[in-house]
Write a structure and sequence with these properties.
This protein is 12% helix and 32% strand. With 130 residues, the chain is mainly β. The longest helix is centred in the first third of the chain and has 9 residues.
Length: 130
């Protein structure tokens, strides 16, 4: 999916645009999905592509929604991120290229993958299970 910056600005709020298109980060503990336990599917707020399921969401107490795996590996794109003076792995929507957050490994969480997909709430839209 390709859109111009002008098209994205028309469709997204200023905060959504800053995070999804400019790789900003929302402040910790402020996002609407940080602590939610609603069952359903989390999709990309920009394009609607499925990204995560509530069955892989867990409480990491980091200030952002955390998942231990995407719903399918090819739903997200992982990119080396050397910004902010560190090396991290950025997570992007594979469908539209929007910034979602970062993934971290080896932090000792009791999850099947020992990964923490730390995702901005503003990057997501929850579709509750009926």
């Amino acid at each position: 999916m390709t859109k111009t910056d002008e098209q994205w600005r028309e469709e997204l709020s200023p905060q959504e645009y800053a995070v999804l298109r400019e790789s900003a980060t929302e402040r910790p503990f402020t996002g609407e999905y940080t602590d939610t336990e609603t069952e359903g599917v989390y999709s990309c707020r920009a394009c609607g592509a499925e990204l995560f399921r509530s069955t892989t969401k867990f409480h990491s107490h980091c200030g952002w929604p955390s998942f231990y795996a995407p719903s399918k590996d090819d739903n997200v794109e992982l990119i080396e991120d050397r910004s902010s003076g560190m090396v991290r792995t950025e997570v992007r929507c594979a469908s539209c290229g929007s910034h979602l957050g970062h993934v971290f490994e080896g932090e000792g969480f009791d999850t099947p993958t020992d990964q923490r997909y730390c995702i901005n709430s503003v990057s997501l839209k929850l579709q509750p299970t009926q």
